[in-house]
Amino acid sequence: MTGGLRGAAAIVGIGLTEFGALPGRSRMEIMAEAVRCALDDAGIGKERIDGVFGADFTDSLIGLTMAEYLGLNPTVIDGTNIGGSSYVNFMQSAALALHAGLCEVALIAYGSDARSAGRAGRGPGPVPYETVYRPRQPIAAYALAASRHMHEYGTTREQLAEVAVAARRWAALNPAAFMRGPLTVDEVLGSRMVVDPFTVRDCCLVTDAGAALIMVKADRARDFPRAPAYLLGIGTATTHGQIACMPDLTVTAVAESAPRALAMAGIGLDDVDVVELYDAFTINTILFLEDLGFCAKGEGGAFVEDGRIAPGGALPVNTNGGGLSCVHPGMYGMFLTIEAVEQLRGQAGDRQVEGAEIALCNGNGGLLSSQVTAVLGTGAAL
Amino acid sequence: MTSSGVRGPGPDAVFAAGLEDGEFRIQRCGSCGAHIHYPRALCPECGSADLAAVRASGRGTVYATSVVRVRPEHGENYNIALVDLAEGPRMMTRVVDIAPEDVRIGDAVTAFVGEIEGDKVVLFRPAAAASAGDAR
User: Fold this and answer.
1) pLDDT along chain A (382 residues), means of 10
2) Å from B58 to nearest chain A CA?
3) B10 inside 8 A of chain A by CB
4) Which one, of A269, A264, A280, lies nearest residue A370 by Cα?
5) Among A151, A307, A353, B79, which lies 20 to 30 A Cα-Cα from B121?
6) Nearest CA of chain A to the CA of B104: how many Å?
């Protein structure tokens, strides 16, 4: 079955700032730089924007702040915050608004000074029945999931480390990535333990960074200079807010969101050329590969061994270096979709997956709480 | 639709009052029979507002466990766990009276009301080490 929003909208502009430490610059300044890049990429002026989409951990009225800062008078404003997956979810909101004719040019934008301000991501909160135990979120929630996965399926710390090593090998091919030096499994295991079983190398970066993306209705997409990346399918799902309410710590809501996204797109996993997953922690990649269906539940640890998801492996995953080695400013969602667009445009340089026509993206939010799966494709895949 | 006329302390306040009395209270749904924790105004299983606070058995099993590492100058490492209560609900807690890294998934544990930095909280200790006065 296909349908829904398949082919309703397309990404025609993308913009990124530098990744890493951008001291002396505010969130909004970083966001605006990314918007300028996206406008240039799309070949339009800011007066064309009439839809604004943004979420932020420090500004709950970010949609208003963005519109004011950029001097926009949008007809659609959406600040829905479901955690780091918000920026994948916004592709659904934007496609709906574009499809309904409520706006014509949607801007999805984000800026973060998380590294310079000493502020990392967070889960839902405050949650009185968990915060009181000082669980050091969001790390602890993912660590608990890892503990359960190791217990039920025999997943090892070495297998978790393989995820970090694969991400670093991709990052080595990406001049924009923040951490590009060599990394071995032994180095991951021997790094400072943060929350068992995670060392600091099982945990994502904390960087500054901005990103922006411009979407239009699909029938307008060819009016723009860059090859459009079409939204082929999207699905969103949630299982819980706080981690104690997750029904099974080894099964994420991707098991619900992915089948819906794939059905909307009318494709199977065999059709996917490149995979971009929200790897805030090494266990994420293993859980999501299982729940997407690339391997059976419990087999994710073995699946990532021997460089299978690294450059040259059978399945290209997190080709920019991911949140683990490329960039993670608190909400990673848009960085994975922009990497997918770069792959579909064929402009990913040394890390380019040859002939990439279909990319599968999965955004994660909260404490494994929300999952948004999106399928993007080239004009040939439409 | 009119108000149901509910008055008095809500489920959060009833739970907190229990802690002050050294008692760990969960809720039981009068409509579907489910036990619920954390405390809520509507049963997440069936939507009923007919929820009553009941004393928890205090019996639990470790579902997931981890250790938060603390730099020595800031204190000591501590356990963070998810415990499945005998009545059904799962909750975050710490398992104490045992080295934090020695807590194992599947361990039987017993609840008691303790403190973390001045806050009254439900903690657990290994069931074998439980003593009189626990699990009230």
Assistant:
1) 84 97 96 98 98 94 97 98 97 98 98 88 72 94 98 98 98 98 98 98 97 98 98 98 96 98 98 98 98 98 98 98 97 97 98 98 97 98 94
2) 16
3) no
4) A280
5) A151
6) 9
A29 φ, ψ (degrees, to nearest 5): -65, -40
Rounded Cα distance between A382 and A367, Å, is 34
pLDDT at position B106: 98
Is B40 an interface residue toward A (CB < 8 Å)? no
**In chain A, whose CA is at the least distance from the CA of B95?**
A133
Using CB atoms, which residue from B38, B80, B101 is nearest to A140? B80
Under the banding of pLDDT at 50, 70 and 90, the label for residue B135 is very low
Q: Minimal Cα–Cα distance from B42 to chain A, Å?
A: 15
Which helix (DSSP H) or strand (DSSP E) does residue A376 occupy? strand A370-377
Predicted pLDDT at A260: 98
**Interface membership of B68 toward A (CB under 8 Å):** yes
pLDDT, average across residues B1-29: 90
DSSP B52: E
Q: Which of B63, B106, B121 sits opposite A133 (nearest CB)?
A: B121
Which sign, positive or negative, has the C-alpha torsion B41, B47, B51, B54? Answer: negative
Q: The tokens of B91 are what?
A: 């909750």
Cβ within 8 Å, pair A133-B105: no
User: What angle do the packed helices A254-265 and A282-292 form, to 10 degrees?
Assistant: 50
Token pair recorded at residue A78: 């959406």
Contacts of B64 (CB under 8 A, 6+ apart): A144, A145, A147, A148, A151, A249, B81, B82, B105
Q: Judge if pTM exceeds 0.90.
A: yes
Q: Do A195 and B116 touch (CB under 8 A)?
A: no
What ipTM goes with this model?
Answer: 0.95
Of A134, A135, A195, the CB nearest to B69: A195
- Model confidence at B129, in pLDDT bands (50, 70, 90)? low
User: Is the Cβ of B64 closer than 8 Å to some Cβ of chain A?
Assistant: yes
